[in-house]
Each structure stands twice: as structure tokens, then as C-alpha cells.
Amino acid sequence: MNAFRSDFDTDGMNLTFRPIRLPLLCFIMAGPLLPTVARAEQARMAIAANFIGPTKELIADFMQKTGDVIIPSFGSSGQFVIQIEQGAGYDGFLSADEAKPEKLLKDGFGVEKSQFTYAIGKLVLWSNTPAYPASESTLRAARFSHLALCKPDVAPYGAAAVATLKQLRLEQILQPRIVMGLDIAQAYQFVQSGNAELGFVALSQLHNKSAGTIWVVPSNLYPPIHQNALLLRQGEQNHVARAFLAYLQSKPAQAIIATYGYDMP
Amino acid sequence: MFDPNSIFTALRLSVTLALVTVVIAVSIGIPLAWWLAYSRNWWRDVCSSIITLPLVLPPTVLGFYLLLALGPSGLGAVAAHITGRSTFAFSFAGLTIGSVIAALPYIVQSTQAAFETIGHKPIEIAYTLRTPPLRAFLSVALPLAAPGIIAGAVIAFAHTIGEFGLVLMIGGDIPGQTRLLSIMLFDSVETGDWASAHAIAGGMVAFAFMIILILRLTQKRLTPRT
């Protein structure tokens, strides 16, 4: 007992200080997190990769107006469907087509009547290799070695690209030269790095970029890309998710989306 | 959606890539390991560290640099043009380049350790018996280091079968050329094709188990008893 007491006395300063200091430190460190955790004023959105550009602007504008936080994840629409069906914690979904939100609704993962078209996408052929300017004739001449697109079974722009090739009757000839990106962002990057001379990407990805040549694919060559948004079951009670989807349909948001070359519904 | 033929194509491609990779990596790796084991050069450690880098880095880092290196402004493009291509990306050759770089550290480390364990003695004894240096290397050092080389090769083979991040970045998912088993598994999961996913994933678990088992058994048998 005596030994213990003397120990306690010599280390007294440490013993009394430590319990106070540590929680205090934790509190200070966690300070910036506390408001968001406590009030949960944030929403997680799964967003098709063609919409990366406008999303950044839209979120900045939305956050400035409301103070609420949107956490975006980008990928192919098909990949998100699988993730959502496996219980991924997204509150809302901005798909690059109508079919995928429709499927989620049918399978009970979406909120009824929350679906709407937020943009109509445009497919372009893009080249970052001067020897192969993007055009229908370059495509037909077929002298290039790689044509990048995104996987048609998961990415709607990939499906549009395949439809275009079919319509031009080039599918058979060009099949061996097709390289697939996981999503449209990777297809873009294959062309940007010059490894693929040509690639089908979204017009919005080339916003404010002067590099390379662009051929806007005539809209009669592929079915229209109606990009639909959906509130997910997970986010049904999340007012930030609801507010963000409502904001997407507002005039200022539509103006931002239009600057990226999308048509408006 | 379940298509045994396409799984078989991917399997054959994965195994071919792994075999080619191991053969190339072993032929580069043995001389490298020999030098690393016996050299007293100050930049030996620098070289050894550079070779080991892929072991520590995420494969995506290698993939990113390879994509740039293979592209039109990179070094790889020069080599590609000589062989009449525009780029090595999206090709079996490109995947091989990447996997050899990724597999080399496994072989070099294991082989170097084996050479270091043997030490100078057996070679010096061979020299005193007037064995020419190359002969001494081939008939003394190499057989003694065999367990280490084989262990490295097996791990490198298995690692190449399991390569994903690198292939994802420079492959382009072309059936029969760059669509490896690991990529096909990812595709199957992404499209909700659980039947194919189960077939591939289950097969890979069985394969990995076999590799580890073989490794344990051969190591027991090959390790020289002292």
C-alpha cells in the first residue's frame, strides 16, 4: 500500500493530467467533424462518370446556397446499380440512362415518382492524335489501331457508341480495334494519353478543353441518352438528397448543365 | 450470360501471360540476383531498391506510368513503332512488359537470398578445382539456389495470375488479348453475372490453395538437409 502511494505521489502530475488531456485532444481533433455528424446534413450521390464536370460546379453552387454537403462517387451507371442492390449507402443516383433507374425502382430500391430527366447527353468522337482527326471519314477509313469506348453493358454512352457503329455498318470492321474503358472517364483517358487514336466520349467531358478534334455524332445515329436521376430508398428521409435533386431541376442548375453541352428535357 | 468458352479463353490467356512473364523474369532475375548477392558496389542497394519498388507500390502507380510510357510521347512508343504498332498498350506485349516489372522483385529477392545463403565457399572450392567460372555458376551455384529460384518463380506465377490493377489500367479489356481472368471476374460482378463470377472466383481460390500447398511440399523436399 505504501509503495503504491509513493508511486502515485511522484507521478501525480502525470496521472492527473492525462485523463483530461486526451479527451480534450480528441474533442479538438473531432471538432470540424462534429457539426456534420450531429446534424447529418449531407447526402451521398452515385453519379455517372460523364457528369463529373458539371457535378463539381453544381455541388459548389448548391453548398454555397444551402450549406449542405454532397458527397459524390463517380463510376459507370451499371456498376452503381449492382452496388446499390448490394446495399451501398447512396442516397441518390444520377444515371446516364433511363433504364437503370427504372430497374432500381422496379426492384424496390428507388422512391416512387422521384425519377426525372436531368440532362440529355451527347455522344462525340474525340481524337487527341493530330494524324487522325475525329470525323466520320476517319472512322470509315479505319487506318487507326485503337478506338476507345466504355463497356456497353454497364455504361450507356458505350451502348450509344456501339449503336452508332452499327448504324454506320462499321461494327464488324472495327470490332478488333475496340478497347474498353471501365467507364467513360477511362475511355477519355485512353484517348487523352494518345494510346487510343480515337474514342467515343461524352461532349461534356470536353468542356473548356481545346485539345484534339471533335466530331459530334449526329443524334439520328443512336437512341437519345436521357439521363435520369432517382431518389433511393436509403435517402428517402434525407432532406439534403431531396433538396439536391430539386435543385438539379432549378433554373440556375439547368444553366450550369447546359454549358457542358447537354440538352435540356 | 454464363459462357464457359469465354472463361476458358480468359483462363488460357492468364496462364500464358503468367508463364511468359515467369520465363522472362527468371532469365533477367537470376543474373541480377547474382550481381546483387556478390557485388560490393555502393549503388547495389540503390538498384535493389528500384527493383523492389513494385512490391511496395500500388499496381495502379505502375499502370499509370506504363500508360504514359507506352503512349505516343513515351519511350515505349519508339519500340512499338519499330515493331509496326502505334502503342504497346491494349496488347499482350504491353501486359507482359508490365507483369515482368511487377514479378521481377519476387524472383530477384528469393534468388538473391538463396545465393547469399550459399555464400562464397562452394564457388571458391569449385575454382580451386579449376572449374571455369561459368561452369561453376551453372553446376554449383545454380543447383544449390534452385529451391529459392523455384519458390520465387511460383510466387511470381501466382502473382501474375492475380494481377488486376495494372491490367485494368493498360489492358483495355479485349477478349483473347487482354481480358484476363481477374478482369473477367470484375466484369462479371459489374454486370451481375453471378454464375460466371462464382466459377472464376471459386476456381481461383482452389488454384491459390494448390499453389501454396505445392510450394510447401516442394520446399520441404528441395531444401538441402544439413
Automatic annotation (TrEMBL), chain A:
What's the short name of a Pfam family annotated to this entry? SBP_bac_11
On whether Hydrolase is a keyword of this UniProt record, the answer is no
Q: What CDD domains would the database entry show? A: PBP2_AvModA
What highest taxon heads this organism's lineage? Bacteria
Name the UniProt key words of this record, in alphabetical order: Metal-binding, Signal
Q: InterPro entries recorded for this chain?
A: AvModA-like_subst-bd, ModA, ModA/WtpA
Q: Which family does it belong to?
A: Belongs to the bacterial solute-binding protein ModA family.
**Protein name, per record:** Molybdate ABC transporter substrate-binding protein
Protein source organism: Acetobacter lambici
